[in-house]
Amino acid sequence: MTTKTTTDSSPTAEATETPAPAPHTGLVAVLGRPHAATPEELGGKAARLDELTAAGLPVPPAFCLTTALFDVFLRESGLAAEIRAAEARGASALTVRESVLARDIPEPVARTILAAYEDLGRPRVAVRSSAPREDSAERSFAGQHDTVLDVSGDAALLDAVRVCWASLWSDRASAYRAGDGPAGSIAVVVQEMVPADVSGVLFTVDPVGGRPNRLVVEACCGLGEGLVSGRVSSDFFVVDDRTLDVVEERVRYKVTKCAPLAPGRIGMTKVDAADRDAPCLTRDQLAALARIALEIRDAGGAEQDIEWAMHDGTLYLLQARPITTRPRPETSDGARSPYLPGLLERQPDAVRHGTLWSRMDIGEIFVGLMSPLGLSFARHYQDHVHGDCAAALGVRDTGDVGLHMGFFQGHVYLNISYTAYLLGQALPTRDQRHFTRRFVSEEVDLATYENPFGTFPGGLEDLLSTTHWLRATAGEMLVMKDRARDMAESRLYEFDRARRLDLTRMGRRELHAELGRYLDYFHDAHVGYMPYYINAFGFYGILTELCAKWLGAAGDNLQNRIKTDMSSLRTVASAQEIWSVAQAAKARPRVMEIIEAAPLEEVADRLRADPDGEAFWQSQMEPFLRANGTRGRQEMELTHQRWIDDPSYVFQMIRRYAADGFTADDIMGRSRARQEGDVRAVLKKLPLPRRTTIEGVISMYALCSELREVTRMSMITSIWLVRNVVYEVGRRLVEEGVLHSLDEVAFLDFADVRRWLAGGLPAREAFPRAAIEERRRVHEYHNRLPEPPLTFVGEHDGTRAVRPVKDGARLDGLGSSPGRIVGRARIVEDLVWQADEFQAGEILVTRHTDASWTPLFAIAGGVVTDIGSMLSHSSIVSREFNVPSVVNTKYATQVINTGDMVMVDGDTGVVEVVEG
């Protein structure tokens, strides 16, 4: 559904003269009242609403401008003959649509529309298209025609009606009905606007799993458009249709909602703090909604997809349509194993049931649920890049790349068993336990685990592999600094070049060549980065073992108290650079006024339109974005915008740093306040050879960490480059009507994007609508399931919810940054929208973090995450800022509430809600 908004505007003569009688009154049907219009003349949506209203169900008052009135409009405006001629000569649908939009509505037709609006009481209304074949049992046409929300005033109403009429020739509607003949006709529903407090959808059958006797409800705060577009979080409920009991529930933390921001303007705003972690619907409201849904299903004789809204506790039905797609079996999207179908069947039972899977520490870029596009891009990485990354580590035999990774419930897992088997060719990981234990959370007991792949072949193979690894490692030590410098320089070159290009002006062949260039760079950046990542990982592991072996109790957590070179870590330095930008903004009152007063999404444009703002942009923002702009959440996920695409989060942090008056020492000084003297005192107790060994390992860990951060920017920039091309493809698909909006890029397959750019296949064949909808359904199903474990062996039943004890006051996790602190908790679900709420010294509680969260760590008193490990982003950056941190608590975001007084012990891994 395309949603537009319009502002209140009225003709100057409006309501000043007694209007003449409407000449076409018989062509307008008041829904729920007797009228002469046939269901075909009402269109699918209006016909269903007419039935529901007549049945006494709670539908907002509405009238329908029938297809017959639309035909009169075409005839009296002269468009009918013009459209016939255009279609005869093969003119595009866009040409016809623009002709309709440009034509004034003839006065008799306009008078008829406004008379019906007057009879309705002239409220704010939603104007919705209703095509004859829409919402039918054969084809839904959902989202193909336009809707205009929150319309008020005569002129605005006429504009909205014309938009809906013209959408009969929208590209997406034309593509959807391809092969079905001429466009036909269209009706329009004008319905009283419901300023929804809560809204959502209800399916009278499980739309993905197909489970019997299950009503599935999704509910969000505000208007349902936020849910349809996927821009807001929603609660999920399953109701038994026999007892009306709630049998499943998943209440999510809800930060944003879609709502009227001003008369005629719909947009995103924040959910009130008190409503964020509360269920959208009560049990009684769910039962009432379920009863109505069953009544609609029984009357319609088919399973239903129902849109509803609630305002001031009153329930309203906005739409009901038959479900036109068959639910897929619950287990058909990958059973219980991350092995891909086809590959799974070829594995011996010992491998199928004994493989160790983990999503800990896999580059900080695969964290969390990924979209279908993100997963397919991860498959590209696996098939075309990951094997060469292994080779860059000195692994002679890189094995079967299909076994390196797996995919489970929308998450990417590393096959630890197979990787450990292959890394047995390298001396440091000859003993697989050195690698395996770094990727295992406490869900897995390594004491009973055996690698089903066994150990890498010995004998001559072992000798060849060891020789190869030694030669490769020696070469790496010689070139590692030079390669990092070259990667940093090439990153800036590719970044600057990309910003100069206009992808919209490229033909398909040129765009294909550009994507090929970016994928080559993506390959080289990841292969170049991998040795730094793994070597830092390896030296950290060696340091941990040496501290435990040689220092005993005195060495507990010592590796987490050793300072690396903060100024050299790009991820951490980004916080200091934002602070510097904030100071520059404070020195320019006009600039700070714009940053603080403008809506976040408008700050950049307003700065660029202001002389002082433009000077600030060029001197401060451009250098900052050139250095940091390709950062973003969940970096391998192509659907997420980077800071360069949307700097809202940067402006949030500028506001935060400027308002709190932080100094540079506040941002960076805590890292220098480490107890370095204590560390040195402990090391001095060691014999010189051991002390020298540990200091050497510390030095190598620091060097690899520094180079890892430098080259990491090349890696994430390469992903941003690929994203640019994918979204240019998406823009073209929206223009051609293949996608309803750019939001649907998330449901493309990356391999299809490459094939379409490479060949001459028409877009509708390359991106079939059925496949897009299937991926959407599976993604929504994954989103409803509980978070799968960080690690597990063999298979996992992802449908089994693991619920924490709600009144539990203590959580045991992994202490990843030492120290103990007590402070107020702040749950952060959406980084961009909540950065301005976070107060200095609060305990940051979230599911997981990545590099884009770093500026928030600089002002946090402590950090607590649901998932993570000793080398996850949360842990590393917490240690650099000397912030106590506990990760892998599993349930912190569900048990802790914003405002709770929380004790965080980064040494013992305990998080406790305390009184205070």
From TrEMBL:
It comes from Streptomyces alboflavus. One of its GO terms (molecular function) is ATP binding. Residues 41-329 form the Pyruvate phosphate dikinase AMP/ATP-binding domain. The gene is pps. The keyword Ubl conjugation does not apply. Residues 1-26 are annotated as: Disordered. Keywords: Pyruvate. Residues 1-25 have a biased composition (Low complexity). Pfam families: PEP-utilizers, PPDK_N. This is Phosphoenolpyruvate-utilizing enzyme. It comes from the Bacteria. Residues 838-909 form the PEP-utilising enzyme mobile domain.
